[in-house]
Amino acid sequence: MRVLIVEDHLKMAALIQRGLRKEAMAVDVTANGEDAIWMAGATEYDAIVLDVMLPGADGFEVCRRLREDGVWAPILMLTARDAVRDRVAGLDSGADDYLTKPFSYAELLARLRALVRRGPVERPAELRVGELRLDPARHKVWRGASELSLSPKEFAILETSCAGRARCCRDSSFWSTPGTTSTRTAPTWSTPTSVSCAGRSTSRSAPRASRRFAAPVTA
Question: pTM of the prediction?
Answer without folding.
Answer: 0.61
